Amino acid sequence: MTGNNPLKRKTLPFSAIIGQDEMKLALLLNAVNPAIGGVLIRGEKGTAKSTAARALADLLPEIEVVSGCSFGCSPDDPELQCDRCRERYEQGGILERDRRRVRVVTLPLGSTEDRVVGTVDVERAIREGICALEPGVLAAANRGILYIDEVNLLDDHVVDILLDAAVTGINIVEREGISLAHPARFILIGTMNPEEGELRPQLLDRFGLQVTVGGITDLEERMRVVETVGAFEADPDRFLEVWEPEQERLRRAVVRARALLPGVTIGRDLTRQVVAACLSLGVMTHRAELTVIRTARTIAALEGRDEVLAEDVKRAMALAIPHRMRKRPFEEPKLDPETLDSLIGGDDIREDGGGDNEPDDSPSSGGSDGDGTSGRTGKEREQVFSPGDAVDPGAIRPAEPDRVIRKASGRRKPVMTRRGGRSVSVRQGREDLDLVGTVRAAAPHQRRRDRGALALAVEPGDLRQKVRRGSAPVGALFVVDASGSMGTERRMESAKGAVLSLISDSYIHRDRVGLVAFRGSGADLVLPMTHALDRAALCLAGIPTGGRTPLAAGLLKGLEVLLSEQRKNPDLVPLLVLISDCRPNTGSGGSIREEVVRASALLGERGIRTVVIDTETSSPSIVPLSLGFGRTIAEHAGGRYYRISDLTAGGIGAIVRYEQGLSVESENKYA
Question: I need a surface site. Which of 30, 533, 591, 655 has the fewest CB within 10 A?
Fold first, then answer.
């Protein structure tokens, strides 16, 4: 329960949470069987994700731990003991014990690798001259619950470490002079808002289960939520007392299921159906069927049975399979009941992995079928084109590191960082101290220093801090030509196909994206910079085509938007992607060419990385002919120029080699 400490945070009881049955089931299954591998809870803010994760601890029985052990080792099970406790246990020593409730350890956003794994205790090393470990988050979470809010905003290498420990149950610490292993067995709960960016598929696969939660739409259910929370806030102690019998019922169910689980069996025929279903759905990772079987056995145990039924498997697949299925970006992972019924428990079991359940690869349409429909009346007919063929975004992906020190919070561009990321060197400083670097700097001066009782005399000038390399977020602004000339030869279809491919790439890398469209006499910000990349795709599909081509206005609008974003977030790496035939025919009154050149030069002066994708097509010839200003823009902006045909499968290999510096051939070869 909550104890009598008035400062201790009281949590709404798990059994009192209204709705969200799938989320509560996934959490209970992991409470019974942590080997399932944790649960990832996706959903918008305010949908009880954090409340449910924290409330789960109250359903778990108390545990016995070795007194004074930083890792919460079991006094009776050598498999759950650190090196020191196991050595004492095997020598027949008596391990004193304490009894305590299961802890919920929350991983702070922005945690470094040292904070997660553990590192050298700098103070003891300097004062006592010994290498002692300062335990990290994994040590505190052992035999408890590790809760990661906004897991999709963590650095990928930190998520890798956490998921490795969750799977193996062991944390290995190898730091300056220390090599130690300790148990790290915990129930892993991650929550995320998909609008803020996605996890890579490789990381998604490491979570055993995934559920998607949303706001309750039923009026009466929402009324119950309001009344329940109101009663809890008015008198928490009384509320907890009222719900205690239901909490105790769930506690007994968890304990009973844990005892029953080892004896639960699943038939070979049912196992075969699970494997065949995974193949039919195109799921290649072997974790899929392993997790389904573990989850199905746990469902049976939770319901008091010693044999798995087909219905258990269906429920398990709904939790363990969708996030492992291949899908198009912006699609919600799901597995409908009709598909489950056809795969499990039926007579026709497919084993060829072929599949009618592959995602549809046809482009999403936000307007007409490609012939276009009029968006509004005017002197020139407007058309709305569907996206055309996809392109490979790898050719324009920012890859080279820069030397600007930023905060590492993205995945895309390697940069030198203040915090987060991996340590690559040291420099003089007092923040994020590097022990080895500090000791090395101080060691040559020990003979002439008065050490007193210290093992090492360190002066301020000896202090060294870590220099880390991480990834900064990219702000990708797509400046799209929506003028009438883009309707010629279906250029707008190709342009939208290119932009949709680049947006999909940004979706994976957690970039912020925005859309500027220019036509007629000016340029408009169609979509402000956002992480909600599904909105970008919808806005792109609905952009109409028609009117004149104010190219300079589009470039200046893009510059304005990116500079505004940089003022809000100085760590942002700005990227402007121009999609146009680069043939302006209107300006602000002066020379059209001079206006375009001035706007392009401003992009270069302000450090905006610029990529020009020219949609103009030309007839095959020895020297491809371009009538637009694409090369001029790229030259004056210090950016790169590509023809849209270069970004297809045929020409992408040469461009990627050129971009990576592996080819010395001229850029003109690919123009």
Answer: 591
Task: List CB contacts of 301: < 8 A, sequence separation 6 or more.
Answer: 32, 33, 257, 258, 260, 261, 264
Cα 501 vs. chain centroid, distance in angstroms?
A: 19
How far is the C-alpha of 666 from the C-alpha of 23, rounded, in Å? Answer: 56
- Between the alpha carbon of residue 405 and those of residues 200, 402, 417, 418, 569, the distances in Å are 25, 8, 5, 6, 13
Whether CATH 1.10.8.80 fits 264-343: yes
Each residue's pLDDT tens digit, 585-630: 888 888 899 999 999 999 999 989 888 888 876 544 444 445 578 8
- As given in the structure block, the two tokens for residue 9 are 């945070």
- CB count in 10 Å sphere of residue 577: 24
For the chain, where do the domains classified as CATH 3.40.50.410 start and end? 383-399+473-670
Q: Classify strands 145-148 and 187-192 as parallel, antiparallel or unpaired.
A: parallel
Write the Ramachandran bin of 487: left for phi over 0, alpha for psi from -120 to 50, otherwise beta. alpha
Structure tokens at 224: 């119950």
| Of the ranges 1-10, 95-104, 384-393, the best mean pLDDT one | 95-104
Which one-letter DSSP state was computed for residue 624? -
- On whether the CB atoms of residues 481 and 499 are closer than 8 A, the answer is no
For the chain, give every residue range classified as CATH 1.10.8.80.
264-343
What would the pLDDT profile of 540-572 be if each residue is shown by its tens digit? 777 777 888 899 999 999 999 899 888 877 777
**Distance of CA 64 to CAs 76, 99, 156, 175, 569, Å?**
9, 4, 34, 29, 47
Query: Contact, 504 vs 511, CB < 8 A?
Result: no
DSSP 261: G
Q: Which residue has the tokens 């870590």?
A: 466
DSSP 8-class letter at 619: -
How far apart are alpha carbons 467 and 426 in whole angstroms?
Answer: 5
Quickly list DSSP for 184-216.
Answer: ---EEEEEE-GGG----HHHHTTSSEEEEE---
> Which of 525, 515, 578, 514 has the alpha carbon at shortest distance from 552?
578
Task: Give the pLDDT score at 89.
Answer: 83
Query: Is a pLDDT exceeding 90 seen at residue 149?
Result: no
pLDDT for residue 27 is more than 70 = yes
Confidence category of residue 403, pLDDT binned at 50, 70, 90 = very low
Q: Which amino acids are annotated catalytic?
A: 287
> Which segments within 79-131 are labelled E, that is strand?
97-100, 104-106, 118-120
**Of the listed ranges 75-89, 264-278, 418-432, the one predicted with least confidence:** 418-432
pLDDT band at 253 (very low <50, low <70, confident <90, very high): very high
E strand or H helix that includes residue 641: strand 640-643
129 residue type, one letter = G
Residue 297 has pLDDT above 90, yes or no: yes
CB atoms within 10 A of CB 205: 20
The CATH H-level superfamily of 383-399+473-670 is von Willebrand factor, type A domain (3.40.50.410)
Find, among 418, 457, 417, the residue nearest to 441 by Cα.
Answer: 457
* Closest alpha carbon to 368 in 354, 385, 356: 385
By CB atoms closer than 10 A (0-12, 13-18, 19+), residue 348 is: exposed
Contact 614, 582 (CB under 8 A): yes
Q: Which residues pair with 180 in a beta bridge?
A: 173
Question: What pLDDT sits at residue 670?
Answer: 35
